[in-house]
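Title: Prediction job returns without error message
Component: structure pipeline
Severity: low
Priority: P3
Assignee: unassigned

Description:
Job completed but the reporter wants confirmation the result is attached to the right record. Sequence as submitted:
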Amino acid sequence: MSAHTAETELRFLGKLILEGELHCETGLHIGAGKGSLEIGGADNPVVKDAFGRPYVPGSSLRGKLRALLEQASGLAVPSELVYLSRRKGQEVRIHQSDRPDDEICLLFGRNPGRMERVQGEPLESSHATPARLTVCDAPLDPDSITPQMRENLDDELTEVKSENAIDRITSQANPRTLERVPAGARFRVRFILDVLCEEDKALLARLIEGLRLLEDDSLGGGGSRGSGRVRFANLRLVWRNRSYYATGSPEVELIAQADLAALQATALQPDFSARLIP
């Protein structure tokens, strides 16, 4: 847990901007929903922008990071989870607490009000916590889809993976198709961490922890069947303080062309906090 307390005062100190690339080590499927089905198309299409190019929604990336950090922190247990939705078959449970040092709520935000816990008494929270972390939509780098790759794709930018579900009694096959962004594709990612007090500077380490967990997990659908393995590369971290926005002072580059291991080592240096001058 962090050093935040109920008496911690919030005032804008600056923003940490983390940019880089997300590399698809295997095919990536982030679904567009049934409303995007086309005649003759895949059963499960990927989400695309207005120009027909696949992208990674910031909400998908942010939600996966939150889930992984909740699990790693031991917070994905009934007593720590609340219901966002209790609709039968579509229950949604996330971690929420009213503890001022809860880093999950500090990173992803906290709303006031009454929420039903999965187990135990309802959570009554009287104050809101602004989310420190913003995750932008990640557009596809079109140059990452090479001419050689395009020759073997089912569509201009995507592939179609065929799968079969087998009935255990009758052995009847239930075929389905899954549209995926192919292995080798790259997306441009951008994370923004608002620093609203001195204690917030330590939250970067938790974000990096989530990114490292994601590299050994999966993003999007079909992860247990081989899809969604990703890797972060060419990361650049900069600090933009109040003067950057108020008077046009230059940003401070903290690291560039880094992988997650180098970025984490930078964030854990004893003097890292001192380098973030308001």
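Comment from assignee: result matches the submitted record. The chain has a mean pLDDT of 92.
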